[in-house]
Design a protein that fits this description.
The complex is a heterotetramer of chains A (about 230), B (about 375), C (about 375) and D (about 150). By secondary structure, chain B is α+β, with helices and mostly antiparallel strands. Helix content of chain B is about 45%, strand content about 10%. With about 375 residues, chain C is mostly helical. Chain C is about 70% helix and about 0% strand. Chain C contains 16 helices and no strands. Chain D is of the alpha/beta class and about 150 residues long. Chain D is built from three helices and seven strands; from the N terminus they run αββαββββαβ. Chain D has a domain of about 90 residues: Beta Polymerase, domain 2, CATH 3.30.460.80. Classes of the chains: A alpha/beta (about 230), B alpha+beta (about 375), C mainly alpha (about 375), D alpha/beta (about 150). At the B-D interface, α1, α9, β6, β7 and β8 of B face β3, α3 and β7 of D.
């Protein structure tokens, strides 16, 4: 019971198949964590509505990914979605919320405000310029507010991150944060087609592959992103 | 002179005056800033006596972003996009309020097409906002399904907006001097399809929630506020109208195209939670009526009467203008010193005033009622804090 | 040895089998006991997961969406992933909490649930222990759960938890009375406290319809009061999410929270199963008096299936309530019990006594 | 009443009230000393019947060294608007509260205190509204500086 915080004894690895055992343990543990991201009901402003559209609305429905069990208590939540602006008065509370969550905990910063302060960056005496000044963030989802599809893209990125992230041997070690921007030039139809294909295929989504494919396509054409925001993925 | 500055700590200090072993003690509880039913980061300090609420002390500022200060450093056009982020559920109407104030100050005449499209958009936004409220209201009372039904129907209006505006939530569509873009060719068809779709759904809303005996028990007579208190607290919109005061700027000022359409101002009788619930549901019907009347007669014309590149400078002076958003009266007060950015810009937001109704209405009700009352006031916290 | 194999398909509980095997070999008796314990444990785990999955799927479809879809075929492994995650999640005990009680509370809640499962007759052959005071036992043991809730709320040192726990305490103790009154009606009808005999007494027809209106009223009373006892919507005020954040389990995380969660769902099953046993004949097929032909056709469906079917229907009904109704307020809840259900319960009990006295059933027992 | 009539009526009721120029609706300017009396009249007199205080805010005229306090009044009975302004010196900004006439003034005045540091005489619960109780300075004053705030690069 409880999270694995200690390194597993090194004598497991020397025994034949020991590392295989550990690797498959990793896979199972990470699989369960990735597929059961219970979000905290927490939203500060506009992005919360789009987040609710993504999690709550029947059209998008995060319950397909097992992430609809929104917990009002931070103790029971795994995923803190920072949806909206964080201001100086809220900052200590956000930190408390994060600290109240039990490990493993993941943080998604959705929207410009949570990433950089967004439209409230300049001349504001109270807006924190990015939630990562307060707590560590795993995935950034840009947009003002990000569409429900972008939120999903972020969720899938996080799932992928978790699946290949922590290992039993090195607990607590995470991959560096990623920006989960939709590739430039992507259209709604493409996303829908990808979602449909993915729904058909299987339970695991190779987000990176899909993104690379789209990137390749978009390199052939022109980069038509309106805000010139080019995405980077690790 | 008796100016005494207090702090929150002073307010929440308990007096231990009774020493009888049988006396009960009142206690303070923090509701929020992270609480599922405060709709964001509102914090209410509750003085409770068992389950009974004795006093509500709202503590604000958890999403105070200093929009008014920022406005002093931005041009008038730039400020429109900040107004989206106040009450993001009536973003278009907020845009309209700011634009209208600027237009009136700068004497910009608009053509009918712009006015009609603005009115249409505002009414669609109002329906969308009430849909969300209805869902969240159900959830606050413990019924989860309305939440999803509300969102399901909200998506369809979001689609209509997206087609024309390009955004789903923060629109920045109504600009000083017109509209950002002309409407999408499929707009009229889409809106008609939506009206067709939504009418039976509204009946479904009624069957799912309104007729439920538990809901009636929870709402009738709860959180009653008479018209005089509502006026004194400065409540507007459905909250005021539920208390029986027929103040609707769409009727009394008849801005936009509201003068040309027939619709009723919905008022309640008792000013309790049920009336606030019912007024909002009925308002959705009225909004649909307005949309129905306008959708077939959108006049021809340009969607922008001034070039978007022109920098706006207002003549020196102060300008105040109000618009009826989904939650009440949004007033924009601009003081101009003749420069490109306002000298002072102040927003009289509907939720700020509506929120304080909780201090008047929630006392001596139960904790569960407090949630119902708060939800029936339909506050959007960033709009309070600005 | 041979006796045991002969007896295997006879209608006997696990406890009886163990008692019978004891003279032959102590190991057989122990084997049966272990079988019973493992059976119940496995049953709880599988049932809990299944119910949670069902709840999420049913909720999804009520709300025009799909529910879990991505983990396994139609999300069938969703709860497996959730369980595994909860097992491995950090287990937080707040610094100011009463640590011992905090840890004890979820165990108590789950214990009360498991103990009831032992006496439920699920079919003539699947029955762990047939206690001769089964009804009293159920009433006594199911009150155990509230102890866990009260302890959990108290020991968390959180005002919201405490409020939730106090609400739960008041609610469960009040509604216990109505539930018991309704239960007594069935005891009067069948003249026994043994659950298996209550089932057998319904061979001529289920109590819900055989005793004219009395049975239906008792059924409704029992169902409503039980719903309140297990804190399901519209009586979910102890954990009323929008009022008390998460109620009594606000400060629980990881596995201990999972225990509360699991207990809630198993309780739902127990209520459904108990209601089915008492009023809908348990595993007893649908019989109409002495219409032998009709009864014979009904007997072709195995009793286990009857039990499962009835229970599943009631579970579905409970879920349906959950996703349709708003929540009652705390004082309305108390009013409903003390001013509405309790008088009806007493009146119904007297009516039941009259029915029994004059043998005033459809197809009276000869 | 239309705005011209309204202004005459206000001038008759309160001789010290001067029309405020450069305003887009009926507006009067009163000295601080007369504010309370005028407001009482406006609230209770049935010819005015201003039952709603729509808005109350302040403007920092730092060059003149004054705060201009702005009250937007609306009457649901007559349907007319009036803007009442008064000026207080920046060094000692003390004004009487109008809370007794409109309940909402309590909170609007708290906001103005929070943002400008205007002190309200007789206010029952004068404390910061949006900012923490220990915040230094009043952010909407024109001379407010803060280490935290970023200026937009040109």
């Amino acid at each position: 019971m409880g999270i694995i915080t200690e390194k597993l004894p090194c004598y497991i690895e020397p025994i034949p198949g020991g590392s295989l055992l550990l690797t498959s343990m990793d896979a199972v543990i990470n699989w369960s964590r990735a597929n059961s991201l219970w979000p905290l009901t927490f939203g500060t402003s506009c992005c919360a509505i789009e987040m609710m559209m993504a999690t709550g609305a029947p059209r998008h429905d995060t319950s397909r990914f097992g992430a609809e069990v929104a917990r009002p208590s931070p103790r029971q939540a795994d995923l803190l979605v920072i949806a909206g602006t964080i201001v100086r008065r809220m900052a200590p509370r956000l930190k408390t919320l994060y600290e109240q969550m039990g490990e493993p905990r993941y943080v998604m910063a959705t929207g410009s405000c949570a990433i950089s302060g967004g439209p409230f960056m300049y001349n504001s005496y109270s807006t924190i310029r990015g939630a990562d000044e307060i707590i560590p963030v795993d995935v950034y989802v840009p947009g003002c507010p990000p569409r429900a599809e972008a939120f999903f893209y972020g969720l899938l990125t996080l799932q992928k991150l978790i699946k290949e992230g922590e290992s039993v041997r090195r607990p607590g070690e995470r991959r560096k944060p990623v920006l989960s921007a939709l590739p430039p030039g992507i259209t709604l139809d493409q996303i829908r087609a990808e979602m449909a294909a993915v729904l058909k295929s299987d339970a695991t989504v190779n987000v990176e592959q899909a993104a690379k494919k789209l990137e390749k396509e978009s390199q052939d054409g022109q980069c038509e992103s309106a805000d010139g925001c080019c995405c980077s993925r690790t | 002179m008796s100016v005494h500055i207090t702090t929150l700590d002073d307010r929440v200090r308990l007096r231990q005056d009774d020493s009888s072993p049988l006396s009960t003690q009142e206690y303070f509880v923090n509701m929020g800033p992270q609480h599922p039913s405060t709709h964001g980061v509102l914090r209410l300090v509750l003085k409770l006596d068992g389950e009974t609420v004795r006093e509500v002390i709202p503590v604000l500022g958890y999403i105070h972003r200093g929009i008014e200060k920022m406005g002093e450093h931005q041009s008038y056009r730039q400020f429109v996009h900040l107004s989206d982020r106040l009450d993001y559920l009536s973003a278009l109407i907020n845009n309209w309020a700011v634009s209208m104030t600027i237009e009136k100050a700068a004497n910009i005449e608009l053509n009918d097409r712009i006015q009609v499209i603005r009115t249409l958009m505002a009414e669609l936004q109002r329906i969308q906002s009430h849909q969300l409220w209805w869902g969240v209201f159900g959830m606050d009372l413990g019924a989860f399904t309305p939440f999803l039904y509300g969102f399901r129907d909200r998506e369809i209006i979001a689609d209509i907006f997206e087609e024309t505006v390009g955004a789903r939530l923060t629109m920045n569509y109504i600009q000083p001097g017109g509209l950002m873009y002309d409407i999408h060719p499929g707009f009229v068809k889409r809106v008609k399809a939506f009206l067709q779709y939504f009418k039976p759904k509204l009946a479904e809303y009624e069957t799912l929630l309104s007729g439920n005996v538990i809901l009636q028990e929870r709402l009738r007579g709860v959180g009653r506020m008479d018209g005089q208190t509502a006026l004194s607290i400065g409540a507007t919109g459905p909250v005021l109208r539920a208390s029986g005061v027929p103040l609707d700027l769409r009727k009394s000022e008849a801005y936009g195209s509201y003068g040309k359409v027939a619709f009723d101002v919905v008022i309640g009788k008792n000013g309790d939670c049920w009336d606030r619930y019912w007024v909002r549901l009925e308002e959705m019907r009225q909004s649909m009526k307005i949309v129905e009347q306008l959708i077939d007669n959108i006049p021809e014309g340009k969607h922008m009467v001034m070039k978007p590149a022109v920098k706006i400078k207002l003549p020196e002076g102060c300008y105040y203008n109000q618009v009826e958003t989904a939650r009440g009266i949004l007033g924009v007060y601009i003081v101009s010193d003749g420069k490109e950015s306002p000298y002072r810009i102040h927003l009289r937001t509907p939720n700020f005033n509506n929120l304080w109704a909780i201090t008047e209405t929630a006392a001596n009700w139960r904790l569960g009622d407090l949630v119902a009352i708060l939800s029936s006031l339909d506050v959007v916290v960033p709009d309070i804090d600005r | 040895m041979t006796g045991i194999t002969e007896n295997i398909w006879q209608a006997k509980t696990v406890a009886q089998r163990a008692a019978e095997a004891l003279p032959e070999s102590v190991w057989f008796a122990l084997g049966y006991m272990v079988l019973g314990v493992v059976g119940v444990a496995a049953f709880i785990a599988v049932l809990g997961m299944g119910l949670i999955y069902a709840e999420r799927k049913i909720a999804g479809h009520f709300q025009c969406r799909l529910g879990p879809m991505r983990v396994g075929w139609h999300g069938i492994f969703q709860t497996v992933a959730d369980t595994l995650k909860l097992l491995l999640k950090e287990d937080v005990v707040p610094a100011q909490a009463d640590k011992f009680l905090h840890i004890l509370a979820p165990l108590f809640t789950l214990l009360g649930t498991i103990l009831v499962l032992a006496v439920l007759p699920m079919s003539p052959i699947v029955h762990v222990s047939d206690v001769n005071i089964g009804v009293v036992y159920v009433g006594a043991v199911s009150g155990f759960g509230v102890l866990g809730i009260l302890l959990g709320g108290w020991s968390s040192n959180n005002k919201w938890s405490l409020l939730g726990a106090m609400r739960a305490g008041a609610q469960i103790i009040s509604y216990e009375i109505s539930a018991t009154l309704a239960l007594l009606v069935v005891v009067l009808f069948s003249g026994t406290l043994r659950l298996s005999e209550i089932v057998e007494s319904q061979a001529a027809g289920w109590w819900i319809w055989r005793a004219h209106g009395v049975g239906i009223v008792a059924f409704l009373l029992f169902f409503i009061a039980s719903l309140a006892e297990i804190n399901r919507t519209p009586f979910d005020i102890p954990e009323g999410e929008s009022e008390l954040t998460a109620g009594f389990h606000t400060e629980y995380s990881g596995m201990r929270f999972a225990f509360f969660f699991l207990a809630e769902f198993i309780n739902m099953f127990i209520v459904a199963a108990l209601t089915a046993t008492l009023f809908l004949g348990g595993w007893m097929p649908f019989h109409i008096g002495d219409f032998a032909g009709f009864n014979a056709i009904m007997d072709m469906i195995p009793p286990g299936l009857w039990f499962t079917g009835k229970t599943a229907f009631l579970v579905f009904l409970i879920m349906w309530f959950r996703w349709t109704f708003p929540r009652l307020r705390v004082d309305q809840l108390m009013r409903l019990e003390w001013k509405v259900l309790l008088p009806i319960g007493f009146a119904n009990l007297i009516a039941a006594a009259v029915v029994v006295l004059f043998n005033f059933y459809f197809f009276p027992v000869r | 009443m239309d705005s011209a009539n309204l202004l005459t009526a206000v001038a008759a009721a309160e001789p010290n009230a001067k029309p405020r120029e450069k305003a887009d609706r009926a507006a009067v300017q009163v000295p601080v000393g007369n504010l309370s009396a005028l407001m009482k009249r406006l609230r209770n007199d049935s010819t005015f019947a201003f039952d709603m205080l729509c808005d109350h805010t302040a403007v920092d005229w730092s060059e003149q060294g004054t705060f201009e306090l702005v009250y937007q009044l609306y009457s649901t009975v007559h349907g007319h608007y009036l803007m009442v302004t008064t000026s207080v010196p920046r060094v000692s900004p003390i004004v009487p509260t109008v809370r007794e006439f409109w309940r909402i003034a309590e909170f609007q005045e708290r906001e103005v205190y929070d943002m400008f540091g205007v002190l309200y005489d007789g206010h029952p619960d004068l404390r910061r509204l949006f900012l923490e109780d220990d915040w230094k300075g009043f952010p909407l004053r024109k001379d407010y500086t803060d280490d935290f705030m970023l200026e937009r690069p040109e």
